Amino acid sequence: MKNQLVMIGNGMAGARCIEEIIKRQPDLYDITMIGDEPYPNYNRIMLSNVLQGKTSFDEININDWAWYEANRIRLISNEHVTRIRREDRQIETDKGTIVSYDTLIIATGSSAFILPVPGHDLEGVVGFRTIADTEAMMESAKTYKKAVVIGGGLLGLEAARGLLDRGMDVHVVHLLSDLMEMQLDHAAATLLKRDLEKQGMKFLMEKKTTEIYGEDRVQGIRFEDGTSVECDLVVMAVGIRPNVAIAREAGLEVNRAIRVNDRMQTSDPAIYAVGECAEHRGIAYGLVAPLYEQGAVLADHLTGKPTTGYQGSILSTQLKVAGCDLFSGGEIHPCENTKAIVVQDECLGTYKKVLVRDNKVVGVVLYGDASDGTRLFSMLKKQSDISEFTNASVLHKAGEESGLDVATMNADETVCGCNGVTKGSIVGAILEHGLTTFNEVKTITKAGGSCGKCRGMVEAILAHTLGDKFDASAEANGMCGCTLLSRDEVVAAIKEKGLHTPREVRNVLGFKHEEGCSKCRPALNYYLRMLRPNEYEDDKASRFVNERMEGNIQKDGTFSVIPRMYGGTTTPEDLIRIGEVAKKYNVPLVKITGAARVGLYGVNKEDVPKVWADLEMRSGYAYSKSLRNVKSCVGAQFCRFGTQDSLGLGIRLEKEIEMVDTPHKMKMGVSGCPRNCAEVLTKDFGVVCVENGYQLYVGGNGGTEVRECDSLMTVTTEDEVILMAKAYVQMYRETGIYGERTAPWVERVGVDTVRMTLADQAQAAALAAKFEHARDTYKEAWGEALVNKQRTALYTVEKR
C-alpha cells in the first residue's frame, strides 16, 4: 500500500508542491487535498483582473477538476479542516470527514486581515482574498456608487482600479504617507499617486480608521483625526494573516506562522508546511515566487531527491499596478554604507534608483519603465562587480540602451516571478514538447499566466530557442496580441497621423500593452525605419538579440563572426588575415558556410569587437533581416557553358542591395546558364543568364517549406536586373508583414500584382529610387559599431 500524503489547502503554493511531487515520482503517494472553497485550484493574483473585467473566473483556474482526476488526486472541496489528531495521524473536517495520513502538508495560506474596529461586521465590508470577496464587490458595484478601499498596497490599489472600472467613486485610505511603502521609496510612490489620481482615484493619506458606521449596511468611515467619508462599500486590503489556528491547536511550534526548517518540516517530523502559513528562519513570505521555491524543495525531500534545502529568497516585485509599471528588489531605502544611482525623467514620468554597496547592487526601485528590472535584479542576485558599468546616461539614442539579453541569461534565472518559472524550465519545455507559441509555453510552464508582465521575455526566449521557426503572430488576430489592427492599418495610421515613435504609435492607436510585445516592438521599429528613413533613429533595443548584437549567438553563448565575401570571392590577403585572427583568438571552428563565406564560430563574447577590428572586413549580415548573400556560379568568366558574367552580376547585386532592412531575411542567386548551378529557383530573387539576357524569378524558398520561384520577366541588360531587384525589394519592404518571407508574401499579394507593378516602368523606377534613398541612410554595421563605445560595451562580460 502506498504512503498516504494529505495536504490541508488547495491554493497556489500547495498545488504547486503537489505538481512538483507528481513531476518527480507520480506513483509514490496516494494524494488527498482538502480545500475550504468550492473551486479547484485558481490563481488569486488574477482576481484583480476579474474585478477589472479583463478576464473571467473560469479563465483563472490553474488546475481544473480534470487535472485532479487525471493525476488520481482525491480532492475534498468546500470542507474546512478543524482538527489534526497527531497521535492517530488523522485529520477531521467540519463535515465530519476523517482522513488518515502518513505525511501531512499544511498549506492553509493566509486570510485578509480585517481591522477589528466597530462596524467591521456590517454588510458591505469585505476583504479581497477570495472568489467570494470578488463576487461581493462586483455585486455591490451594480447597486452602490461610493467605495472606500482601506490600504494603499498592491491589493488595495488593484481593488480601487477595478471598482473605478465598474463605475464607482473610490477613495483609498492609507495609514502612511506613501503608497506601497514596502516596494517603493518616496519619489516612486509620489509618481504612482500622481498617475493614479489622473485615473480618478482619490486618496486619504495618513488616516487611521477608528469606526465603520451604519445601521444594517455600511454608510461611512470615521478617522482618528475626527474626519469621515461616506461610502456604501468598504474593502479591507490592509494585509494578510497566516492561517495557523489548526497548527497551533495541534501543538506545533508557531510564531507569526508555522515554524519550519530548511526541509519545510515542522516540529512534528511527519508534518510539513509551505506557503504563506509557513515561517522559515523568522520570515513568512507573501510573494508567490518564494512559495513555489519552497514547494520544489519539499517535493525533492519527499521524493528522496538530494536537496540542500530551502535557503530563503531574495525578493523582487515586478508589477503593473492599475496600468502603472514598477519593479523593486532587495533594499529599498539607502543607509550609511549605501550609495544611490538615481535617474528621473519628469517628461516621461519614469524613475530609476539603484542602491550600491561595495560596487555591488543591493537594491533596485523602478517606476514607469520597469524594463531593466530583470537585468538589474540578476546583477543583484549574482553580486556582480559593477565597477566597469556606466552608472547613468541622459539623452542617449534609443538603440544604445539594452536590457537583459535572453541569450546571456543563466538557466536558473527567474523569468516569471508570479509563478517562479526559470529560463531553463521554459527552454526545456519548448524543446521537450515542441512548443512554438506563447500560449503553449504558458499552458505547460505557467510562465506569463498571472500578471503577464513577462510575456515579452517569454517570447524572446521562444524566438532565441526556435530561431526562424518562431512566429509571434501565430496567436494574434491583429498585427500582434497588443492590437486588433492589421499591419496595413497600423502602417496607414502612421502615415495619416504623422506618428514618429513606437511609443507614440502604441499610445495613439490604443495598443493593449503600453510597452508592446516581442512582435510589435521590432515590427514598429522596422515600419518606422522603412517609412521615415531620414527621420527615424533605429532602435537597436527593439530588435531581436542577434540583430542587436550584430552577430548570431551560438548555443553555448559564444558568437559567430562571418565577414562579407561578395559573390563568395576573397583575396589571399583576406584569407591570411582570417587565419591569423582565428589563431590569435583561439577560434575553435573555421568553416565555409552555405552562403559561400568563411565563418569563424565559437568567438568569445568579449572578443567579438576585437575580432572585427582585426579583420578589417565588412559585416556579412548573417544575422539580419536583410539581404544575406547572392549565390552565383563562375559564369562566362571561366565556365564553358556560361552565357553571361553571373559572378560579376552576383557581386554587383550584393553590393547594391546589402544592409537595407527587409521584413525578413533575403537570399538571391545568379546562375550563368539554364543548368542552374547556383540553385536560383528557390531564392527570394533569382536570375538565370541566357543568350539573349536575364530571366528573373521571385518568391522562392529553400527552407523547411520549399517553394519554387515564379517567373517574373526577362530583361536584356545588367542595369535592368539591378533596377528590377531594387524595385522588387522595395515593394516587398513597403507591403510585406514584418517576419514574412517573400514566398508567403508573393502568394498573399499575388504574383500577377508583382508582375504588373514592376512591368510599369514608372512604378518600377519610383520604387527603385525609394530603395536607393533608403540605402543612403544605412552605414555598414561593424564599421559603425566599432566607433560607438556604448555598442561595444554590450560585449563586456560581467566579473563573477
UniProtKB/TrEMBL annotation:
* Binding, siroheme: C677
What is this protein identified as? Assimilatory nitrite reductase (NAD(P)H) large subunit
PANTHER family reported for this sequence: NITRITE REDUCTASE (NADH) LARGE SUBUNIT
BFD-like [2Fe-2S]-binding domain segment(s): 415-463, 479-529
Where is [4Fe-4S] cluster bound in this sequence?
Answer: C633, C639, C673, C677
Q: Which organism is it from?
A: Paenibacillus aquistagni
- Report the NCBIfam families cross-referenced here: nitri_red_nirB
SUPFAM superfamilies given in the database record: FAD/NAD(P)-binding domain (SSF51905), Nitrite and sulphite reductase 4Fe-4S domain-like (SSF56014), Nitrite/Sulfite reductase N-terminal domain-like (SSF55124)
Question: Which residue numbers delimit the Nitrite/sulphite reductase 4Fe-4S domain?
Answer: 625-758
Task: Write out the entry's keywords from A to Z.
Answer: 2Fe-2S, 4Fe-4S, FAD, Flavoprotein, Heme, Iron, Iron-sulfur, Metal-binding, Nitrate assimilation, Oxidoreductase
| Record domain NADH-rubredoxin oxidoreductase C-terminal: where | 316-383
Q: Which co-factors does it depend on?
A: [4Fe-4S] cluster; siroheme; FAD; [2Fe-2S] cluster
Top-level taxonomy: Bacteria, Bacillati, Bacillota, Bacilli, Bacillales
- Kindly give the InterPro entries that the UniProt entry links to this protein: BFD-like_2Fe2S-bd_dom, BFD-like_2Fe2S-bd_dom_sf, FAD/NAD-bd_sf, FAD/NAD-binding_dom, FAD/NAD-linked_Rdtase_dimer_sf, NasD-like, NiRdtase/SiRdtase_haem-b_fer, Nit/Sulf_reduc_fer-like_dom_sf
**What does the entry comment about cofactor binding?**
Binds 1 [4Fe-4S] cluster per subunit.
FAD/NAD(P)-binding domain ranges (all copies): 4-280
| Family of this protein | Belongs to the nitrite and sulfite reductase 4Fe-4S domain family.
Segments forming domain Nitrite/Sulfite reductase ferredoxin-like? 553-616
**Which Pfam families does the UniProt entry name for this protein?**
Fer2_BFD, NIR_SIR, NIR_SIR_ferr, Pyr_redox_2, Rubredoxin_C
GO biological process, alphabetically ordered: nitrate assimilation
- Pathway listed: Nitrogen metabolism; nitrate reduction (assimilation)
Supply one GO molecular-function term.
metal ion binding
